[in-house]
Amino acid sequence: MARKPAAKPSPPKQPAPKPAPPKSAVADEKRTFEPKYNWMNKTRQWGVRVKPGKAGLKLGDLNVGIYGETPTQWADQSRNPRGAVPRRGMPPVGYSIRDKAGLWADCAADLYEEAIQRRWAPATDVPWDTIEPLPDDVEHAVCQVCTELLGYANVDIETITGWQHQMSYGYHEVKQFLATASFDAARHYECFRKRALANGGGLGLEGPGMVNRMILESRGGWTEAVVYLLLMRGAFTMTLYKYLGRHAHNDAERFIYEHALADKARHVTYALDHLKYAMAHADDVLQVVRTLIAIGEGGLTRDLRDPVLAEALAVIFAGGVAKAAGRGMAVYGDMMRDYVATYLGYCRWLGVPRDPARLPPPLNEYADSTDTGA
Amino acid sequence: MALFPSVDWFDEVRNVFNADERYRGAGGGYCNCVAGFRIAEKVFVLTFDGFECSAAAEGDDGTLDDVDFYLEMPAKAWRDMVANIAANGAADLHHTLNTLDLDREDGLATSKHGDQVREDLFFRYNQTLQFFFDASALVETEFPKE
User: Fold this and answer.
1) Do A262 and B123 touch (CB under 8 A)?
2) Is residue B131 domain-resident?
3) Which of the four, A235, A326, A333, B131, has the lowest number of CB atoms within 10 Å?
């Protein structure tokens, strides 16, 4: 057996060497430091003291004096925060959305605050332990619907973030609100994926995606994206969440759909407020929105002609395939009538009423025949 | 013991709701709206301001012109909802405001002004309203004799 080598004798104790001063400190000592502090005079407004209210210090509370000035066009092409002193010679970033009418909504600051303060965490707030095994056909249907909703959430994220970086910093309330909207969408993506994978099922068939493509490929500006993504798809998704919440199988699903509904309602509120602002403050937007709505309806109906989502929803609403064709499709019809009524109501509110009789099929089949659209 | 519906009952629920910080998390919290409730022949108005329900008052039909939205159900449906909450500690799947809204031909939430953005506050703040009524589980409630 090999012997272990003897341990090396420890070196005699010596006083610890004096640590060498760091090089930067040496350099500092040599440098003649003559601060000017002239940046301290660089402000456009000093002495501001905003005060918190009952709901804390809100984003909108900061809009005092020059800090609340939001001109109709934001000429600065840099990342200069609104109200700060611009630095000369900054190269332009090249924001394409610099007109207020291209993104603004008066409610954006409040919606941002609402989104931040009413946030929820799927991992810990959803009572996942209430999910219990479901009949196979119902679990398939739930997973199929979750798969389609994952696609919706993905398009929300991509579309919003795809436009957000093109928006001027002068309208930071909108940029901040949209950051919450894309985060909401990420949360929805998380929730539906978790639900699909939490109860013995898995993801199903990808949705037809005509509306997704229409939204993602729209190049006419953020307002156009708002019409497709937040008004038309948003109102449809809201209606889906309402009915899925009503037909939830457990507290976890109920929590998910009801909270996702609240998030989506915020997005739709921004859309309505923005579109109304844009139509009131920019030439021709009213006509453009009318045209976009007609185009959007065409895209939406192509998705609706795909039977997969309708069948899956019918199975959920009926509690199984046995009654899906009867009771399930009847509830699906109620849901579609609810959607069309909500959508037509939004169009009326915007001042672009739609004649229900002229909606493309199958949307017109769900319109109230007594609704004149006016 | 508070009689449902009455301002006293709503005030007792307000006290429970405002004192429980759990209602500010998990999708609740910040809420600004004026909500009306038509319960049988009576009208009540709740004001939500920031994190709290700051006022409960009795009104009349005209009061409903000014609220953001109001909820209307027959007295029995209100009573069933409150009793269900008392029995379960919170509304079960069949007695949530969302379910009651969809189960009714004309919905539960409506308005006289028809402004959809204000009506949609019902959906934006649905969880807060649900938390509010769920808080009634801790209020000893008495119903009027039929």
Assistant:
1) yes
2) yes
3) A326
Q: Please give the pLDDT value at position B102.
A: 85
Q: What's the Cα-to-Cα distance from A340 to each of A209, A294, A359, A360, B118, rounded to whole Å?
A: 20, 14, 10, 12, 19
Task: Specify the number of domains making up chain B.
Answer: 1
> What is the domain-level CATH number for residue B25?
3.30.1050.10
Distance CA A165, CA A175 (A): 8
Residue B36, domain member (yes or no): yes
Q: What is the pTM of this model?
A: 0.88
Query: Would you give the DSSP letter of residue A120?
Result: -
CB-based burial of residue A163 (10 Å sphere; 0-12 exposed, 13-18 middle, 19+ buried)?
Answer: buried
B51 pLDDT tier (thresholds 50, 70, 90): confident
Tell me if B24 is assigned to some domain: yes
Which one-letter amino acid corresponds to residue A149?
L
Nearest to A258 among B49, B115, B127 (CB): B127
B142 is a domain residue: no
A185-196: pLDDT as tens digits = 999 999 999 999
Phi then psi for residue B118, to 5 deg, are: -70, -35
Contact B47, B55 (CB under 8 A): yes
Residues of B in contact with A112 (CB under 8 A): none
